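Dear Dr. H.,

I hope your travels went smoothly. While you were away I took the liberty of generating a structure for the chain from your last submission, since the lab meeting agenda had it listed for discussion. I wanted you to have the full record in hand beforehand rather than looking at slides cold. The sequence, exactly as received, is reproduced here:
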Amino acid sequence: MLLNTCLVLASPLLGLVAASSSTEEGVSIPIQKRGAFAKRSDGVADVSSFKSLLQMPTYKFASTALTANTAGIKLPGFSQSRVTAIIGSILSGVTKQVDEVTGDLLSGTYDTKQSHGRRRHGGRAKSRSKHWSRMQKRQEAALHDQGAEQYWTGNATIGTPPQNFIINFDTGSADLWVPSYNSSLAGTHSTYDPADSSTSSPVNGTYGILYGDGSTTSGPIFSDTVSVAGLSVKKQVFAAVTEESDSFSTLLYDGIMGLGFKSLSKLGATTFFGNLEASGQIRSNVFSMRIASTEEGGSELMLGGVDRKKFSGDMEWVDVTAEAYWMIDGNVGINKQVLASQSLIVDSGTTLIIAPPSEAEKFYAQIEGAVASTEYEGYYTAPCSSLNSADLYLKFGSSSSEWVVPADYFNLGLTEVGSSECFGAVTSQDIGIDAWILGDVFMRSVYTIFDAGNTRVGFATLA
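The corresponding predicted structure, in token form, is as follows:
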């Protein structure tokens, strides 16, 4: 979802859009962090509020039809036949069945958001990218922290005249959707009405998606003019969803803009970011992110380049293993124990770090007193002192550098008032992909660069 402009994360003032400001990199526009609080004022972790927008590998939009392959899909508490029925209901577009599906999915949902780490000791990786300073036509859109490091949002418009939306920029999916005027979100969220736009056109087919936390959306497809941070794409394909999970009604954003590779698209369409590059509006096929809490400040999405004020030193580059998710190879380390090499998905739409169940078990075996939660499936608890002293870090490729996840990011908070037990930010979930998801818990501790032109991800030490 990151355009070749920079989306800046700023204070969580709902609906506030800061005036654009020129920098050497381009124009800066603030974005906000929105969401329910992950850690309450009494120190208790609100684990039910975590979100994962990683696109699940369940069904595909192909031209005008949706097809399903449910063989590898698992949902907690459901038989394979029930999973097939659920996915089939979503694809059929039958309204009543979709409502039932939503309730079923929500009852087995786990929401999560990940951590990010700082680089420490080790050699510097040489950058293969040339002449960053020559990148032109960069834009910055401010990102805003919407409640205790849950998710970060920016502003976008669709249509002529423009209809305004608060958007979650998600590197774990590849489609743009906003609520339709006749969706259940009407009245609480901004909605799209094609009748109010002179540039709107219907597109054949139906859209549907299932995210990693079990939430779903579906609805008709349109094309229209979409703008972010002063950059506009005409005839951008997107969905105006009429059916969505109840969980979206409580979120402080209207829709999602996917920044993954086109092969992930359920719409079968080029992403907004891809269209910016194709139209020559951005010089480099790169976007970068700095996400931070409201207190830390300085969050941003940079479309078309990097913001050198946000990081120091060289960038460490890691090749993407396949053009779908922003998936790279690396290792997770905990308390001097390095786990086996893993596929790692860098996902701004996920709150926590998600590990395959067997890997999560190995991970927490290295932390004294850690046990699987009996109340929240997929979560682990441990003495707060053990989590606070845990040494969690990531290593990528063949580099000796280690990117540390600070203890205050890894420790989500108390299990209950007065307890000495806390929740850890690494959770367990079978997402249908043999990979870890590195969400915002990790990304808060690094400056992250997504280089679509060279299919690689870069990491740099925060300034």
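Two observations you may find useful: Confidence is low (pLDDT under 50) at residues 1-24, 58-68, 92-138, 145-149. The chain has seven helices and 33 strands.

With kind regards,
E. W.
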